[in-house]
């Protein structure tokens, strides 16, 4: 292995460790707050087929990323919110889950939850989770 290859590997490791430490926390908090400002998010969660309000998983500890992926995927497919932001959040959560980029969250690969909530409750869970990391 030559010196330039070693430099590249060290630089890549440095970038990964920096990204793993911050978990895109500030961006996730900012975009989640932006989504929470939308008016149509607070309707009650009903799991009946005739309901226009979605019920999204409120994650158990250790399964946040898997549930965030599942919930944002549902939001994206059903055009429940600003699609560009939801698309971005979904990709970030997938990357964090699949590559273990956010060590304090990346444990459970399956979404496990005891309750479901509406879009607003789901977004508040995202916000609380990343605000706790940001402290």
UniProtKB/TrEMBL annotation:
GO MF annotation terms: cytokine activity; interleukin-9 receptor binding
Stretches that traverse the bilayer: none
Signal peptide: 1-20
GO cellular component terms listed in the entry, alphabetical order: extracellular space
Domain of life from the UniProt record: Eukaryota
Keywords: Signal
Name used for this protein in its record: IL9 protein
Designated gene of the protein: Il9
């Amino acid at each position: 292995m030559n010196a330039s290859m070693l430099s590249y590997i060290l630089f890549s490791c440095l970038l990964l460790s920096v990204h793993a430490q911050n978990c895109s926390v500030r961006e996730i908090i900012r975009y989640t707050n932006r989504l929470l400002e939308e008016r149509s998010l607070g309707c009650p969660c009903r799991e009946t087929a005739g309901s226009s309000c979605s019920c999204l998983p409120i994650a158990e500890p250790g399964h946040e990323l898997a549930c965030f992926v599942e919930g944002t995927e549902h939001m994206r497919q059903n055009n429940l919110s600003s699609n560009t932001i939801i698309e971005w959040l979904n990709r970030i959560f997938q990357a964090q889950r699949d590559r273990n980029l956010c060590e304090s969250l990346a444990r459970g690969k399956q979404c496990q939850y005891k309750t479901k909530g509406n879009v607003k409750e789901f977004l508040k869970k995202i916000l609380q989770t990343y605000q706790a990391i940001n402290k």
